[in-house]
């Protein structure tokens, strides 16, 4: 029997950070640019460019011609997101859990489940504990544990030595970065349409290399359970 590893992105896949992160981006941009929040076009374009929401915020400000240090923009963003005392009192509490835990339980009884994310590990763990899902994942690689999805996948491959890996993400940039790994081992990449995003995002993910795109993570989990042996 082949050893299969299931790797999940976190934001937009397992948890809905769209309200919290977008609120942070909008308010941070407004803070540094005369109370003018980021508009919808800027948010969509920045989402295509980067998987890092601090970088998205900074890029919007830069394109507007606002001269601000990245560290200051990041600091203000985190004040909103985690609270000024970093006590998890901020907008992180507004995030909805997207996964059906019964599906995660069934998957984890058959396969090793991990998370490779651009978010901070402490933020990922906060929500996993909040929604009683930490027990389903063997490994969590956040931004401090891996420099990007490619690096995280290399670490996971070396640690678990799987015969096949299935990975899902809602952003195009990580899917593009993982394309180069497909020639070295059996890696299947899939797209998840993020919450509050229309279905045209499917084309963006397919163009980035996704083999198939799903409306949400639960549809993806059912696909794995029904089709992967």
Features:
229 residues, alpha/beta, Rossmann fold, 2 domains, 6-stranded parallel beta sheet, two-stranded antiparallel ribbon, 10 helices, 8 strands, 46% helix, globular
Chart the SSEs and their pairings.
Blueprint: E1 4-8, E2 15-16, H1 18-32, H2 40-49, H3 53-63, H4 70-82, E3 96-97, H5 101-110, E4 112-116, H6 121-130, E5 139-141, H7 149-160, E6 164-169, H8 172-178, E7 187-192, H9 201-207, E8 213-214, H10 217-227
Parallel strand pairs: 1-4, 1-6, 4-5, 6-7, 7-8
Antiparallel strand pairs: 2-3
Report on this structure.
The protein is an alpha/beta fold. Helix 8 (172-178) links the parallel strand 6 and strand 7 (187-192). 39% of the residues are buried. The protein contains ten helices and eight strands. Helix 1 packs parallel to helix 3 and helix 2 crosses helix 3. It has a six-stranded parallel β-sheet with strand order 5-4-1-6-7-8, sandwiched between helices. It has a two-stranded antiparallel sheet with strand order 2-3. The chain has two domains: 4-16 and 96-227, 3-Layer(aba) Sandwich (Rossmann fold), CATH 3.40.50.1000; 18-93. The model has no long low-confidence stretch (mean pLDDT 93). It has helices spanning 18-32, 40-49, 53-63, 70-82, 101-110, 121-130, 149-160, 172-178, 201-207, 217-227; strands at 4-8, 15-16, 96-97, 112-116, 139-141, 164-169, 187-192, 213-214.
